[in-house]
TrEMBL record:
It comes from the Bacteria. It holds the Pfam family FMN_red. The keyword Ligase does not apply. Residues 3-143 form the NADPH-dependent FMN reductase-like domain. The keyword Zinc does not apply. One of its GO terms (molecular function) is FMN reductase (NADPH) activity. PANTHER family: FMN REDUCTASE (NADPH). Coiled coil: none annotated. It comes from uncultured Thermomicrobiales bacterium. InterPro entries: Flavoprotein-like_sf (IPR029039), FMN_Rdtase-like_dom (IPR005025), NAD(P)H-dep_FMN_reductase (IPR051814), NADPH-dep_FMN_reduc_SsuE (IPR020048). This is FMN reductase (NADPH). Its EC number is 1.5.1.38. Belongs to the SsuE family.
């Protein structure tokens, strides 16, 4: 049973959501937690559309979510809401699936104006699935990320990285395990990256 399962709802690859969730998993692993990942775009597409609960990739993903002690759910803002891809998967979760788990919602968005989608769109769906401990959430703008020449995300700006790290701390707290040293990775604050010896 993984401590933390991340659910990524972007249909794109590479994806800011997926990169951010990879950072969250490494950060949690560095604190001694076990993690697992569900990327909805990797599940069986026909199974998602036909609501095939027992299609093997979907069954495995549903089981992972239900067995997790905590969840991080990330989606790009699409048309001022969550992605349709994420909703296809959330619709397959049995009622009450998120009860008794802290849930950290994360959105990435092109516009600050649509960060509120986290509160008015994503959080109500999580609550409808039984989540009673929904953390404050983090909205990251495309302009918060730093990109390499190939367009891949290489870092997050320091202020946003700090917000994300605070959210990770808040998610870890109710799980009740000690906090060993953090690991460096591409989404660590720039200031920390600069301290890494050449
Ligand atoms: C189809 C589509 C619709 C989008 N709609 C919005 C939107 O309504 N508001 C917004 O702020 N950004 C919007 N965006 C921008 C994405 O939310 C943003 O680029 C996000 O970081 C993408 O995440 P990803 O890299 O994980 O796919 C949209 C992007 C696409 C492709």
């Amino acid at each position: 049973m993984p401590d933390i399962v991340t659910v990524g709802g972007s249909p794109a690859s590479p994806s800011r959501c997926a990169t951010t969730l990879g950072h969250v998993r490494r950060s949690m692993a560095g604190r001694g937690f076990t993690t697992d990942a569900v990327e909805v775009r990797d599940l069986d597409a026909q199974g998602l559309v036909w609501a095939s609960f027992d299609e093997p990739t979907i069954r495995t993903a549903i089981d992972a979510v239900q067995e997790a002690r905590a969840l991080v759910v990330a989606t790009p803002v699409y048309k001022a809401a969550y992605s349709g891809v994420l909703k296809l998967f959330l619709d397959l979760l049995p009622p009450g699936s998120l009860a008794d788990k802290p849930v950290l919602p994360v959105t990435t968005a092109g516009s600050l104006a649509h960060c509120l989608a986290l509160d008015y769109a994503l959080k109500p769906v999580l609550a409808a699935l039984g989540a009673r401990h929904i953390l404050q959430g983090v909205c990251l703008l495309d302009s918060d990320f730093e990109y390499g020449p190939d367009g891949a995300v290489v870092a997050l700006n320091p202020a946003s990285a700090e917000r994300l790290h605070q959210a990770i701390d808040a998610l870890a707290q109710p799980l009740g395990k000690p906090h060993p040293q953090p690991q460096s990775d591409p989404l660590a604050p720039v200031a920390i990256l600069e301290e890494v010896p050449a």
